[in-house]
Design goal:
single chain; alpha/beta; 5-stranded parallel sheet
Length: 217
């Protein structure tokens, strides 16, 4: 029997507010666990395209910080496939990525599946698939500064638009659909600055779980 058939992959969820460093932390984990070729799924890749709405209606209902923004069934289905050691194809039809014409790619299963996003603990069905749940805790002022730098300086966006969007979509939704769900986290990691101790502790835990699962299988 091949190694990849021995056990269900370790599935890790990384949640935190907008600009809390989720992608940075996920990449660091991916690098530290490179021998397992981790799969990283970003919740944002499953944002719906809102194509069922007219342009005028879309401007009224579109969101990126409310659970309505995510195609949960597609995300959960893909994670279940990976946990069953089956490959998946991205992007998913109906998502913004698919609408933009992002080239299809095949994602192979791995011993480690990392899911990151600011809404992922909201879904009980998704939480139930996670072996480890991590919440990155960052001061709100720092997150706002990081977001403005990212959206304006790094991505060339308009500052006024970025501020208006933050007021319209992030401020009302974060305290309802993101912050309260850190209660489901197994680990709450301060991530105001890089936290190498937390990273290495988590990496060691994942390696131990894989070793134990391999032996028991």
């Amino acid at each position: 029997m091949k190694k990849e058939e021995y056990f269900t992959p370790i599935t890790l969820g990384i949640m935190g507010g907008s600009a809390s460093g989720k992608t940075t932390f996920a990449r660091a984990l991916e690098e530290q666990l490179s021998e397992f070729s981790p799969v990283v799924l970003n919740q944002d890749s499953y944002f719906r395209n809102w194509s069922e709405y007219s342009e005028a209606e879309r401007e009224r209902v579109i969101t990126a910080n409310h659970p309505d923004a995510v195609l949960w069934d597609a995300l959960i289905t893909d994670i279940k496939k990976l946990r069953d050691r089956n490959a998946i194809e991205t992007p998913t039809p109906g998502t913004r990525a698919s609408q933009r014409g992002t080239e299809k790619s095949r994602v192979q299963p791995s011993d480690v599946v990392i899911v990151e996003g600011h809404l992922i603990f909201w879904s009980e069905a998704l939480r139930d698939l996670m072996d480890i749940k991590v919440f990155l805790d960052v001061d709100a002022h720092e997150r706002v500064l990081r977001r403005m730098l990212r959206d304006v300086a790094q991505r060339g966006g308009d500052l006024e638009w970025a501020i208006n969007w933050y007021r319209r979509d992030v401020l009302p939704n974060f305290p309802v659909y993101t912050e309260p769900y850190k209660q489901y986290a197994d680990l709450i990691i301060p991530f105001q600055n890089e936290n190498p101790v937390a990273l290495q502790t988590l990496v060691a835990s994942i390696r131990t779980r894989i070793q134990e699962n391999t032996v028991s299988a």
